[in-house]
Amino acid sequence: MKFDPDDWRDIDLRRVDLKRLPILWIIPVLLLVFAAFTCVYTVQAESEGVVLRFGKYVRNAEPGLRFKLPFGIEEVQMVPVKRQLKQEFGFSTAGATNPNQFSSEQKLERGMVTGDLNAATVEWIIQYRIREPEAYLFKVRNPDSTLRDISESVMRTVVGDRTVDEVITVGRQEIEANALLQLQALVDKFELGLSIDQVQLKNVNPPQAVQRSFNEVNQAQQEREQLINVANGEYNKVVPRASGEAEQMIQGAEGYALKRVNEAEGDVARFNAVFTEYLKAPKVTKQRIYIETMRQIVPNLGKKVILDDDASQLLPMLQLSAAASK
């Protein structure tokens, strides 16, 4: 049956309610406004949006003003990819905004057994970021809870391979490094989409019942090490100095002996030379030796008066007036 336009002539316009016509325009306007509100969204700077179309992953949305299909056709889940998240084990910080940051079973988490079958209470934290939003949302159900379980398993394994002394004192950095590597490997294996930034040990102590005794033993060991270091310091200060002084005395004695030997050899050589000349001319050599000897002695005699054997008067030669004036 076709509609004939001429049939409009048969319509009684008086029966049409013109007051209801604006309502027909309001509904499309409302639909447009609702569509505008539902197709515009904003992704914060520290987040990344994961767009779902009828529940299926479609794309990732970078920070800024973005658009999507309205009327619930596409939904957006915000994932804080640039925020560093934290989980605490064995303790809890007040005011935490992350519901997975701590657990209600803190006593069970921190109680561990070391490799030498000693008990220890270990508290630690992990810091991580969301690296792959799609894997974080869809690969594993409740990835934060899974991360807690993996972290506790890794820490118990690492602590169980070491003695209680290593766990409490010297092995902390090695434990943190090994736990970080093993935890990241398991996170990648389970496709959690996370990146582990740091594993840090906080309070590591023996059980409360033996903590006082352990502290006393630890203090005694520290005092022992301190005394050994002080003794080594005194040894390193005294022994090298004594060795240096002994070496200096030895070198001084060797130098003095070499000097005396050289002087004696020089005297012998000089004597032999003089004796050779003496054999050639004894009288001249004696005269020369006498003159050289007097040249060394006379300057040390002070004031001198030399008289001839035939001199008869001595007083005019003494210059008593000049001596009295001095």
Automatic annotation (TrEMBL):
This is Protein HflK. Its main location: membrane. The chain crosses the membrane at residues 21-43. Residues 38-218 form the Band domain. It holds the Pfam family Band_7. HflC and HflK may interact to form a multimeric complex. InterPro entries: Band7/mec-2_domain, Band_7, Band_7/SPFH_dom_sf, HflK.
